[in-house]
Amino acid sequence: MIYLDNAATTSPKPKKVIQNINYAMNNLVANPGRSGYELSVKAAEMVFSCRKEIADLFGLENPERVIFTKNCTESVNTVLKGLPLKGKKVVVSSLEHNAVMRPLYQLAENGVKIEVAEVFFGDFSATLRSFERAIDNDTALVFCTHASNVNGAVLPIGEIGKLCADRGVLFAVDVAQTAGVFPINMRDMNIDYLCAPGHKGLYGPMGTGILLCKGEVEYPLISGGTGSRSAEKRQPADFPERLESGTLNVPGIAGLKGGVEVVRTKGIDTIRNHETNISAYIYNNLSKMNHITLYTPKPDGIHFAPVFSFNVKGLHSTDTARELNRRGIGVRAGLQCAPTAHRRMGTLESGTVRISPSIFTTFNDANFFINVIKNVKKDTIKY
Predict the structure, then answer these.
(1) How far is CA 203 from CA 6, 51, 99, 106, 139, in A?
(2) Across the beta sheet with 292-294, what order do the strands follow?
(3) What's the rounded Cα separation, in Å, for the pair 158 and 154?
(4) CA 130 → CA 117, 156, 348, distances in Å?
(5) Distance CA 321, CA 306 (A)
(6) What is the dihedral of CA 204, 43, 56, 184, to 10 degrees?
(7) CA dihedral defined by 78, 79, 84, 85, rounded to 10 degrees?
(8) Fewer CB within 10 Å, N side or C side of the chain?
(9) Can you give the pLDDT at residue 45?
(10) 296: closest CA among 152, 175, 178?
(11) Cα gap 96→80, rounded to integer Å
(12) pLDDT for the residue 382
């Protein structure tokens, strides 16, 4: 299959990831941090080395504040439900994923206010002014995506982070589409909480996510066994135990470590340039087809990440995706769990077909897709 759904999860996984998982399953089958025997210590050392790799990648000084979760959604929920936000305002962008919006709608039932800052495609200054207008004395947190999972529109998180720092507002960022693809430094960008999947641009296994906390989290999302301070009735205050209860996913973390090592070896700039070139090549070809509708400018690796959406005129996005699947191409159709972004683009009814390459996508893959989509039109679909 020609796989163009890497915004959902990257495929294939690098050999290093699979090797690390196999090694952990054969040699690290013990609870890390729970005992002093050699096998447990080795597992703990691997887990800590993964924390350090991730902390170094994202500019976080203390590796113990790298928290392992199941996915980016759990990381987001840990932040939103872990802060004292009742009676306060949270500012979000107009492109947020349901991973952010659904927890916020739940919190809104208990007195949390939500304000949406409009994103202006390709205009960082206008977007920044939008956030600046939304932040007031009631604002406790700004939570925004780095890049839309629907159309790749990038937000100026460095500038938004400085704005938040200047106004004493906490700043959290969902980097589901940019971790491993764009350079991200929590210190330089004034990011207090960074939420990322392990299984997308970091090439780790599914079921892995990370939360990097420069700020505090008052209310742990879950509590229970931590392997430390067991006599205390309350969850430990120290990180990472404060936010990690129960047995860690050691094989998953080992695989994630391998993925991060691959990203750091290949280089983020190299990865972004390759994915952007592939995306721009496909986009340019689609732009010449009269039966195709595109919704944003061409991916450029600056204002637009290598993720974009299109539709075949007269077809619902799911019909297009089904036809592509018949011809050996995997894409994501529908609303991509981000109705706010589709409302912004005017595609809430039809959804869109999303294209998202990876470092392993080739120009041969792109040409195969282009040749197929030339012939996918309304009158060619057989139900």
Answers:
(1) 10, 16, 20, 31, 35
(2) 292-294, 308-312, 352-355, 332-334
(3) 11
(4) 5, 12, 23
(5) 19
(6) 30
(7) -120
(8) C
(9) 96
(10) 152
(11) 14
(12) 63
332 membership: H or E segment, kind and range: strand 332-334
Output DSSP code: residue 378: G
Closest CA to 340 of 150, 129, 86, 210: 150
List, for the chain, all residue ranges whose pLDDT scores fall below the cut of 70: 228, 381-383
Whether residue 357 is preceded by a cis peptide bond, meaning omega within 30 degrees of 0, is: no
**Checking DSSP bridges between strand 66-69 and strand 89-93, what pairing results, if any?**
unpaired
Amino acid at residue number 82 = G
**81-98 pLDDT tens trace:** 999 999 999 999 999 999
Under 8 Å between Cβ of 209 and 196: yes
Q: CB-based contacts of 115: which residues, under 8 Å, 6+ apart?
A: 89, 90, 91, 92, 134, 139
Alpha-carbon gap, residue 7 to 356, rounded angstroms = 6
Element (H, E) at 101: helix 98-108
Residue ranges of domains in the chain, CATH in brackets: 15-265 (3.40.640.10), 267-380 (3.90.1150.10)
User: For residue 354, what are its two tokens?
Assistant: 């999303």
Q: What residue type is 169 in one-letter code? A: V
**Residue 227 CA: distances (Å) to CA of 28, 49, 62, 271:** 17, 19, 20, 39
- Phi, psi values for residue 32, rounded to 5°: -70, 140
Contact 257, 53 (CB under 8 A): yes
Query: What burial letters (b/e) apply to 314-323, b meaning 16+ CB within 10 Å?
Result: ebbbebbbeb
Phi-psi region of 226 (alpha: psi -120 to 50; beta: other; left: phi over 0): alpha
What are phi and psi for residue 311, nearest 5 degrees?
-140, 150
Six-digit token pair at 287?
């732009």
Distance CA 97, CA 240 (A): 26
